[in-house]
Design goal:
Protein with a bacterial immunoglobulin-like domain protein, mainly beta, disordered N terminus, 4-stranded mixed sheet
Length: 401
């Protein structure tokens, strides 16, 4: 694999020596990598690298990132470091998010990021040797760019294997020996690559990496995937079990297929009608998403009277717990009213999921033009209720993804 190299500059070496001498003692602020920090990019590639920067001293520090051409600090988002940023006390931290733009780099990067006390270029620290930025640029004539589908891959503790599909997007270079590397990540020892069809991937074709979870949950974690002559990609894997906070709610069901569900953390209503006396055709016992779409399509705004499926259909919450979603955060807006089988799964798992009441909860499954099914959370029974005259509770769900 041919990697482009550029000349090194004496001023950079002088700066490195000064910084090294400053870092001889215990660092006043430290860096914890949250993403891969070593990668290979095509000339037109981009990547994001995140570190958590933590104040290790009792004094407040106002910090700035030493600028590097081709690296842009991202400051818009919950928990992200500003520019400059203040760490007021020991243990205070923020996420330093850096966007790498390969086309703007003047050289490969093998160090940094350097974060300095504002106004003092001699009081600077960078990550430890194993966590510094290590960014290389590939020669497109001898290298293959790759991409991934299926990320984030959600696996169940002690559950079935899952697959990521790797695509060789090059037009004339065969990618070789593509594999994952969990070294130094939370996935190490907890997820295993158990299948690999990526030894040789012709231009424009794809291969698969298969991953098997173990007995321990892992929060969503990125890890590098690359070949002998490819760019680096950083897909994500999470290993979850019922009761784990995840993607806008709580993991509620892991029975497979339509019964892999995330539940909202709270009821969206304690007392609401199912709809009105119109037959909607939402009669699936297993597919609440389709039922919800059908109900909303038929009832619309229901003459201005809110109803169960409408509340779930309109619900949205972001990755920081804001409802409605805020710009810059991941928005989860694919909620629905669970069908009978799906809501029964929530009943079975109500203790780890949490915040249920011993009351009746609507399903999205219709029984007739006047009745729909509910699940009692006091005893294990399902029965029908009047859509309009008997309001019930509502807990929304979304696919586990």
């Amino acid at each position: 694999m041919k990697i482009w190299r550029f000349s090194q500059f004496i001023p950079g070496m002088v700066s490195f020596l000064l910084l090294t001498s400053v870092q001889a003692g215990a660092p006043l602020w430290t860096f914890t990598p949250l993403t891969a920090t070593s990668m290979i990019l095509p000339l037109n590639g981009t990547a994001t690298v995140n570190y958590r920067v933590t104040n290790q001293s009792a004094r407040p520090h106002t910090l700035v990132v030493k600028p590097v051409q081709g690296i842009t600090q991202i400051t818009n988002g919950a928990g992200l470091c500003g520019n400059p940023f203040v760490l007021p006390s020991r243990g205070a931290s923020c996420i330093l998010s850096l966007q790498i733009n390969a086309s703007q780099l003047t050289d490969n990067i093998t160090g940094g990021p350097m974060v300095c006390q504002q106004g003092s270029t001699l009081q600077c620290y960078q990550p430890g040797a194993n966590d510094i930025l290590d960014i290389s640029i590939l020669d497109p004539s001898t290298s293959a760019a790759i991409s991934v589908t299926g990320s984030p891959l959600v696996l169940i503790v002690n559950g079935a294997a899952g697959v990521l599909t790797i695509h060789n997007t090059s037009t004339d270079v065969t990618a070789t020996n593509i594999k994952s590397d969990f070294t130094g990540t939370a996935l190490a020892g907890k997820v295993t690559e158990t299948g690999n069809t990526c030894a040789s991937v012709a231009p424009g074709t794809s291969c698969q990496l298969t991953f098997t979870p173990g007995a321990t949950g892992v929060a969503q974690t990125s890890f590098p995937v690359k070949g002998d002559n490819t760019t680096t990609i950083n897909p994500d894997i999470a290993v979850v079990t019922v009761g784990d906070p995840f993607h806008g709610g709580v993991v509620a069901c892991t029975d497979g297929g339509l019964d892999n569900l995330i539940a909202a953390t709270m009821d969206i209503s304690a007392n609401i009608i199912w709809g009105n006396y119109i037959l909607t055709g939402a009669n699936s016992n297993t597919d609440g998403a389709t039922n919800t779409t059908t109900i909303v399509a038929v009832l619309g705004n229901n003459g201005g009277m809110p109803y169960a499926a409408q509340l779930c259909n309109d619900f949205a919450i972001d990755s920081q717990g804001n409802a409605p979603c805020q710009v810059g955060n991941v928005c989860y807006n694919d909620w629905f009213l669970p069908a009978r089988q799906q809501l029964h799964c929530l009943f079975v798992n109500q203790v780890p999921v949490g915040n249920f009441f011993p009351d009746n909860y609507w399903t999205s499954t219709e029984n007739s033009n006047t009745e729909a099914w509910f699940q009692s959370f006091a005893i294990d029974i399902q029965f029908v209720d009047d859509k309009l005259l008997n309001p019930d509770r509502v807990r929304c769900v979304r696919p586990l993804s």
